[in-house]
Amino acid sequence: MLVSFNHLPDFSRVWVFQSSRELNNNEIKEIESKLDLFITNWTSHGKGLEAGFTTPYKRFIVIGLNENHQTASGCSIDSCVNFIKILEGEYKIDLLDKMNVTYRDKKTINYITLSEFRLLIKNRKISRETIVFNNLVLNKEQFNDQWEVPIDSSWHNRFFK
């Protein structure tokens, strides 16, 4: 069952998929339409899942699931990953590569490899105050409070040690 992401409870589980490039307005519209259809029909053991999504910055797809309504099974999670893989192919983007970092440089959002990120830190082009996107958040509350944070407040801070 598709619901507004904003109406999902804070404890709702989230998955954050970062795009390797900014999507244009037409792509976002198409992807959101496909997300509507996917989530409307998304099930676990034959029961509908109460879920929603958001597409912040035309760079991310965030899917939230109210597991108090119905928990996700391995098969339902697999179907979500397969759906994301289809989007990757259709739009020629990476959404599942976890070896990349997305950060904000003033108002620009940048997507780089982890090794490039480490090099920028080493060369002092990125500071502890640089805003990163912590895609490891587990629920909507963490997404709202800990997703877009300075490096010092994220797992990324380990690269300064």
> How many individual helices?
4
Could you name the ranges where pLDDT drops below 50 across 5 or more consecutive residues? none
Number of strands: 9
Largest sheet: 4 strands, antiparallel
Query: For the terminal residues, how far apart are their CA atoms?
Result: 45 Å
Strand arrangement, major sheet = 7-6-8-9
Portion in strands: 15-25%
Describe it.
The chain is α+β, with helices and mostly antiparallel strands and 161 residues long. The chain has 2 domains: 5-91; 100-160, no CATH class. The chain has helices at residues 25-41, 74-91, 114-122, 140-146; strands spanning 13-18, 43-44, 47-48, 51-54, 60-65, 100-105, 108-113, 131-133, 148-150. The strands form 3 sheets. It has a 4-stranded antiparallel beta sheet with strand order 7-6-8-9. A 3-stranded antiparallel beta sheet has the order 1-5-4, with helices on one face. Strands 2-3 form a two-stranded antiparallel ribbon. The N and C termini lie far apart (45 Å). The model has no long low-confidence stretch (mean pLDDT 93).
